[in-house]
Amino acid sequence: MAALTGAGISADSGIPTFRGKDGLWRRFKPEELATPEAFQRNPELVWEWYEWRIKLIKEAKPNPGHLALAELNRMGIVKCVVTQNVDDLHERACTTCLVKLHGDIMTARCTSCDFEIKWKDVPKGVPKCPACCSPLRPAVVWFGEPLPQEALERAERLFSEARAAMVIGTSAAVMPAGKLPLLTKSNGGIIIEVNPEPSALEPYVDIAIRERASVALPRILEEVRKLYNSNKT
Ligand code: APR
Ligand code: ZN
């Protein structure tokens, strides 16, 4: 099984989703801030948004959903977790196989040279490159930008080969990530959705678990453990 996660898995750690009712930062939609054009127009504003998000993420902890998924991964039930999230909660939950499609919010890179830095503290203002003085930007994928090629190819392979795709906490509104589970489906597999609300994938979902990830995933883990133990005896 391959898993695709989105902002919903981190919602129970106190990190707002993008398209939920509490998802907006001030009056801006993510599509208005997470673009190269927005950054060019107003880097201060864009960094202010990231500063707020980095602070929330640093204060947050992996929730039982992240932890159960990491355990399913360790057991080999979930071969790999593919995430659209730029937070580090899957890493902190000790997920063994993780593909990050949209980059990493804790890293910044130079807009001109190869310089990269991993934040320990929350950045303030528009940070400058120590090598060339150009502005640094968050090392994340913005709207209109390509996904990291290697990560996308790996994710496509995983979902094409999987017999089941578990889609957790994503609206599946952003491409190409949102259509990865369809690769599983078109190769004869099934789609399992863990989301209190139906996503854009609803017409293709075989099993819908309309529950929060932090509740549903520990229950799934418990059931899998029971099956494992009954097979052993
Ligand atoms: N458990 C599971 N799902 C939840 C929970 C929860 N506790 N709370 C909310 N959700 C669901 C919502 O119903 C919604 O379908 O999580 C989904 C969040 O959707 P989005 O806010 O659109 O987040 P996501 O799908 O990750 O967005 C994709 O858009 O802005 C870009 O790059 C950004 O990676 C992001 C991408
Ligand atoms: Zn530089």
What does this structure look like?
The protein is an alpha/beta fold and 233 residues long. It contains nine helices and nine strands. The strands form two sheets. Strands 3-2-1-7-8-9 form a six-stranded parallel sheet, sandwiched between helices. Strand 2, helix 6 and strand 3 form a beta-alpha-beta unit. Helix 5 runs parallel beside helix 9. The longest helix has 20 residues. It is elongated and about 65 Å long. The chain starts with a strand and ends with a helix. 36% of the residues are buried. The model has no long low-confidence stretch (mean pLDDT 95). The structure holds adenosine-5-diphosphoribose and zinc ion. Zinc ion binds next to loops.
Topology:
Elements lengths: L1 E4 L1 H5 L18 H4 L2 H6 L1 H17 L4 H12 L4 E4 L5 H4 L5 E3 L2 E8 L5 E3 L17 E5 L8 H13 L2 E5 L11 H7 L3 E5 L12 E3 L3 H20 L1
Parallel strand pairs: 1-2, 1-7, 2-3, 7-8, 8-9
Antiparallel strand pairs: 4-5, 4-6
The chain binds adenosine-5-diphosphoribose and zinc ion (ZN).
Zinc ion (ZN) binds next to loops.
CATH class: Alpha Beta
| Main beta-sheet strand count, sense and barrel state | 6 strands, parallel
The CATH architecture category equals 3-Layer(aba) Sandwich
**How are the strands of the largest sheet arranged?**
3-2-1-7-8-9
Residue ranges: pLDDT <50 for 5 or more in a row?
none
How large is the share of residues in beta strands? 15-25%
